[in-house]
UniProtKB/TrEMBL annotation:
Gene3D superfamilies for this protein: MITD, C-terminal phospholipase D-like domain (3.30.870.30)
Name assigned to this protein: BREX system Lon protease-like protein BrxL
Pfam families in UniProt: BrxL_ATPase, BrxL_N, MIT_C
MITD1 C-terminal phospholipase D-like domain sequence ranges: 545-691
InterPro entries for this protein: BrxL-like, BrxL_N, MITD1_C, MITD1_C_sf
Segments for region (Disordered): 510-530
Gene assigned in the entry: brxL
Organism field: Pigmentiphaga daeguensis
Superkingdom of the organism of origin: Bacteria
Domain (BREX system Lon protease-like BrxL N-terminal) ranges: 10-141
Length: 692
């Protein structure tokens, strides 16, 4: 186990489980993660390997004997008949038979209906009435000659959820972890390996959890397929329900005016709409109008009566085009159905997760470490819904005056949710609070900036905040920094301007809006101003468009000797970066010229032979293209510099050395990130160019 795993088991004994065990026991059982982890939490919540193996065997046996597979439903019904009584794990829903004045249960996989269930059980677990709940139930069979009576008898029923939790103990244990350790614990609890994600990507994953701890929170995430957008809402919590965007109706979601039956928002903490995107989808205009009112006012009407609810709404869907394409031709809400592509509806959304920044899920991204039993964390987050952390930044920072009330609500709710996740005890430093605030502002800014493109009547907003000293700081979205000329187009206004420009034969490019000054914007890839100058460039995590050619090319051109100093050239991907730097060098001189490159690094303590072998391979390859490549291991133990120096007067200081790109699939030949650096996502880093 890692040191973090040891710490997790020390402070959350019996409340955590090793996340790779879920795959080990799931097999072909189509059962939610929280059901499996409920069982694993009963038998495998330990770090003793022998006990874990015994627990796995026990859980497998329970699933084998009691989980109902649809294709084995007949066999299970026969078992109940022959034995008279049998325990089953199934999804159970309940409806009211108003003719006989009784409640009747239906077992989804077992395929039996009209099983009588007492009113007390239904009152205790009202979600049985809407959508159904996974339960462990004792079923009995007793034949009767009464044709109207069911032979099935429900002896007992227990929803699969944690029985109790100690919020004060949770808050006290949180204080034993650093912020980075706590974030990694939460990422492992979701099921991912935190070592595979940067800080920004971890926060994007955690924003998905805000609807579980924040009431009436409206979130949207649009991005490529396969990034795990809907996973959290289907597998993470028994308090959330995931439905297809095309399957919902007004009665199902809100209330049936005829029967008075309350819909999904009345029973679930989170209602998530999967596959929400799709321009051709048919959408009920009445549903959109009611959703607008509910998302803004937390209420909806049933005839003359107005009802309130606390359910958060989440919309997830796939994008059909790249970000620059959407920014050039429409907006970042482009994939939505036409009736939802409505400024009044979109203005109710509190935050927009940029799904294109989230990497496609690969096998190595899953965690083998310890994380919370998801049902335990789900109950903790549910209890935090009654707390409000939205004012925790106000003693330190003040939002800009031109940020509207609705924008402030979105920022405050996102800030409150992230604080509950990261600092539930409220003990956060000033810099940590500022980081959370910037993240919250960015999520709402992404929504509002797109509204400016859709509806010309919206006034421009300068998303900024001030510290206690009165210093104002602007917030930018990452795509704003990557594509500044496309990002600030006002589509509703600029189309006519482009038509005029096109008629005149001029470029249709539109300059960035004057309402948002272009300051504090790290350039995408243009670092080679002519003449060359000393400068300091900052690049954000997940930024694309960066390459060694654009970073270093102009400053290395003409050099006859180059010295690269980087103590971290050990792992395969780090040495691949070095080889790609040699590719850049090879482009800068003709075949008749030669250039000497000397590398100073530190020998790998455990795999020095492999490191030496790979460096020699680079040297052999360089010799064929006129590069005299040499290297030396620094043995002083004091070399921490990361820079590139040239014999013609330039020093390039690198905050991260050459390791500026995030992980990508090295073995996938059919992947542009593998072949072209500008298609890779970056880590956060900075570069300083100094004239010697």
């Amino acid at each position: 186990m890692t040191l973090l795993d040891d710490k997790i088991n020390q402070h959350f004994a019996s409340l955590v489980v090793r996340k790779d065990l879920v795959k080990a026991v799931k097999g072909n059982a189509i059962v939610p993660t929280y059901v499996l982890e409920y069982l694993l939490g009963q038998y495998c919540a330990t770090n003793d390997e022998a006990t874990i193996q015994t627990g796995i065997d026990t859980v497998r046996e329970i699933l084998r004997k009691h989980y109902v597979h649809r294709n084995e439903a007949g066999l299970v019904r026969s078992t109940i008949k022959e034995k008279g009584r049998h325990k089953v794990i199934d999804r159970i829903s309940v409806s009211l038979n108003d003719k006989d004045d009784v409640y009747e249960a239906e077992f989804a996989n077992l395929g039996i209906k009209k099983v009588l269930i007492d009113s007390g059980t239904v009152k205790s677990h009202q979600k049985l009435l809407v959508g159904g709940v996974w339960c462990i139930a004792d079923l009995e069979y007793e034949y009767t000659e009464d044709k109207s009576a069911s032979p099935w008898i429900l002896a007992s029923l227990k929803p699969i959820q944690i029985s109790r939790f100690d919020l004060d103990g949770y808050l006290e244990a949180r204080r034993q972890f650093s912020t980075d350790e706590w974030i990694d614990l939460l990422i492992q609890s979701i099921g991912f390996n935190p070592q595979m994600f940067g800080k920004r990507n971890k926060l994007l994953q955690l924003i998905r959890l805000i609807p579980f701890c924040e009431r009436n929170y409206n979130l949207i995430e649009l991005g490529p397929k396969g990034t795990g957008k809907s996973h959290v809402y289907s597998e993470f919590s028994p308090h959330g329900i995931l439905i297809s965007g095309g399957e919902v109706t007004v009665p199902k979601l809100f209330v049936h005016n005829g029967t008075g039956k309350l819909g999904l928002v009345g029973y679930w903490d989170v209602v998530a709409f999967d596959e929400f995107a799709g321009k051709q989808k048919r959408v009920d205009k009445a549903l959109v109008d009611i959703m607008k009112n509910y998302m803004a006012n937390k209420s909806f009407s049933r005839g003359v009566e107005t009802l309130g609810a606390e359910a958060s709404m989440v919309f997830v869907g796939n994008t059909d085009h790249t970000v620059p394409y959407m920014l050039k031709h429409s907006d970042l809400f482009d994939p939505l159905p036409e009736k939802f592509h409505d400024s009044a509806f979109l203005d109710r959304i509190h935050s927009y997760i940029p799904g294109w920044e989230v990497d496609v899920i690969r096998a190595e991204m899953f965690s083998a470490g310890y994380g919370f039993v998801v049902d335990y964390l789900a109950e903790i987050l549910r209890s935090l819904r009654s707390h409000d952390y939205s004012d925790r930044y106000k003693a330190l920072f003040t939002l800009g005056d031109d940020i509207s009330t609705r924008d402030r609500d979105g920022i405050n709710k996102t800030f409150s949710g992230l604080m509950k996740l990261l600092f539930p005890d409220g003990q956060a430093g000033d810099a940590e609070i500022e980081e959370v605030l910037r993240c919250a502002i960015e999520g709402r800014k992404r929504v509002k900036d797109q509204l400016l493109r859709i509806d010309a009547t919206y006034p421009e907003v300068r998303f900024a905040y001030s510290d206690a000293a009165g210093q104002q700081r602007l917030v930018h979205t990452l795509e704003e920094d990557e594509y500044p000329h496309q990002y600030h187009r006002r589509v509703a206004v600029d189309d006519s301007a482009e038509a005029i420009a096109g008629a005149q034969g001029a470029s249709a490019a539109v300059e960035p809006s004057q309402g948002v000054p272009a300051v504090e914007q790290p350039p995408r890839s243009k670092t080679t101003d002519n003449p060359l100058k000393e400068q300091h460039l900052v690049f954000q995590e997940n930024q694309r468009g960066v390459s060694f050619d654009s970073l270093f090319g102009a400053y290395l051109a003409g050099a006859k000797r180059i010295v690269v100093t980087d103590p971290y050239l050990r792992m395969f991907h780090q040495l691949r970066n070095l080889m790609e730097l040699m590719e850049t060098v090879s482009k800068l001189h003709g075949p008749e010229d030669e250039v000497a490159v000397h590398v100073v690094t530190v020998e790998d303590e455990f795999n020095g032979d492999r490191q030496t072998e790979n460096l020699q391979k680079i040297a052999d390859a360089c010799a064929t293209v006129g590069i005299q490549f040499t290297w030396a291991y620094d043995t002083s133990g004091t070399k921490h510099d990361r820079d590139i120096t040239t014999d013609h007067g330039w020093k390039i200081v690198l905050s991260r050395g050459l390791d500026v790109f995030q992980r990508f699939e090295l073995n996938d030949t059919f992947n542009f990130a593998n072949r072209l650096q500008q298609h890779r996502q970056c880590k956060e880093f900075n570069v300083t160019y100094v004239r010697l």
